[in-house]
Design brief:
This protein is mainly α and about 200 residues long. The chain has one domain. The protein is about 75% helix and about 0% strand. It contains nine helices and no strands. The protein starts with a helix and ends with a helix.
């Protein structure tokens, strides 16, 4: 099977995750701008989570441009990734409703860490299928950005129990690092097309 089907399914799932997050908002009872203030923690957690899902969606698109044939292992690894991403709406709502309480903030980071781990597993399944001349392996190199992100999530999870706001800053910094589409894929794909 080609990659179009897995991309379309994943696109639809990620759109659902974003929709679920926005449906969690409760309309304020009043009509003034001041009535919106209690929603601010929910809005901020939504914005951060929207960015994260958007980053995964964008990089997923680039990732599967390196794939010509999808294996069963890739399908399972992709479902594993989608499972962890599907928990983002729940943790987003919990963090927003509880104003950065330690356990919700740590759980939010744990879901981000597990999604990042699932992303790494998906990459490894693709590399294994592509063999020694893997386009993806060439694009990733030593994947310093991916490895440092995992370390940052671990630090943020630990920090959540002492200073939860530091955790959120770390989550936002990791998102900023990834918000620009991963150019490694585009570069290697352009080289591969030029070499044909």
């Amino acid at each position: 099977m080609g990659s179009n089907r897995i991309e379309a399914f994943s696109d639809g799932m990620m759109a659902i995750f974003i929709t679920i997050m926005v449906l969690e908002f409760k309309v304020p009872e009043g009509t003034s701008a001041r009535d919106l203030l209690p929603l601010l923690p929910n809005v901020l957690s939504y914005v951060l989570s929207f960015i994260y899902v958007g980053i995964y969606w964008n990089n997923h698109h680039h990732l599967f441009h390196t794939v010509t044939h999808v294996s069963g292992a890739m399908l399972l690894a992709n479902l594993h990734l989608l499972f962890w991403l599907s928990l983002i709406p729940f943790t987003t709502a919990w963090v927003g409703e509880n104003h950065l309480a330690p356990v919700p903030t740590a759980l939010y980071g744990s879901v981000l860490l597990m999604a990042a781990s699932a992303w790494g597993i998906l990459q490894r399944m693709i590399i294994r299928k592509q063999g020694p001349g893997s386009i993806l392996k060439k694009a990733l190199g030593n994947d310093l950005k991916g490895n440092l992100s995992g370390v940052a999530y671990l630090m943020a999870i630990i920090a959540a129990f002492w200073v939860p706001v530091v955790s959120v800053v770390i989550y936002a910094l990791v998102a900023l690092v990834w918000i620009i589409p991963d150019r490694r894929f585009e570069r290697v794909l352009a080289e591969a097309e030029g070499g044909e």
